[in-house]
Design a protein that fits this description.
The protein is α/β, with parallel strands linked by helices and 258 residues long. It has 9 helices and 7 strands.
């Protein structure tokens, strides 16, 4: 029987999987980690509840709490799950999830669609620039195709007709929140506002560059930060007497651009 993993990457955006692989591979060097994927059929209603139910069905097989980690919609699913089943979550790491956790690239896309009377192709090209920065025309087309696929395959709750809000707030388990200084989807303001909601065991950290997929361009840097956070949970559990801890803003770590 295969041993249950200690950490689980939540992949709710199958068209973006390639951007998560380097980080998962880095984390696998020091932690038994698996990937849980949710693939939504095009004729299936978009539902975070379905994803949460399927995730719970999987995690019920574990006899101990587990580290969850997710980017964007995957992070949102982890947040909702940790709120609903706190006893099953050892810690949660959010990548590219702001203080208003439902805000994702799709919410930006549909807001832009209301403002600009232009073609879908043009809107996707604009979103590609917002998310990835300037690219040549061929790369822009390829990335735009990935974004278009994500519109149909992820359980993001947004549409042209409505944008969904989810209450702000943290979780009972330790929480690591990571973002990028130049992310236009989850900007610095949306990231820093997490501070007012943090517990002593929570951490907030910014990567210097990389935009919305900073964990792809700086996978080793982000991986070390996550590994250190996980290790701190082990260290804290070994302490016989809990010591008071101040809320910590990790600040910005300078790195070279990828």
């Amino acid at each position: 029987m295969t041993e249950f993993p200690n950490a689980l990457w939540l992949d709710a955006n199958p068209s973006f999987t390639r951007f998560h692989v380097p980080l998962v591979q880095y984390l696998a060097k020091s932690m038994r980690i698996a990937t849980w994927s949710y693939y939504q059929e095009q004729d299936e209603a978009s539902s975070l509840e379905i994803a949460l139910t399927l995730l719970h069905d999987y995690l019920k097989n574990s006899d101990r709490p587990i580290h969850l980690i997710g980017h964007a919609t995957g992070g949102l699913i982890g947040l909702l799950y940790a709120r609903k089943y706190p006893e099953r979550v050892k810690s949660l790491t959010l990548l590219g999830v702001g203080v208003n956790p439902a805000v994702d690239w799709q919410s930006h896309y549909y807001a832009l669609q209301e403002l600009l009377p232009c073609s879908r192709e043009t809107l996707l090209a604009q979103m590609t620039w917002n998310i990835f920065g300037h690219q040549d025309s061929q790369t822009t087309t390829r990335l735009g195709a990935l974004l278009e696929l994500d519109l149909a395959s992820s359980p993001s709750p947004h549409s042209l007709y409505k944008r969904v809000g989810i209450p702000q707030g943290g979780i009972e388990s330790p929480l690591l929140i990571c973002g990028s200084t130049d992310d236009t989807i989850v900007d610095r303001n949306a990231l820093q506002k997490w501070q007012a909601l943090m517990k002593p065991s929570d951490r907030l950290w910014e990567c210097d560059g990389g935009r919305h997929f900073f964990h792809y361009f700086h996978s080793a840097l982000v991986g070390r930060r996550i590994s250190n956070f996980w290790q701190s949970q082990v260290s804290n559990s070994l302490q016989l007497t809990a010591q008071p801890v101040q809320l910590q803003w990790e600040g910005v770590v300078n790195t070279q651009s990828a």
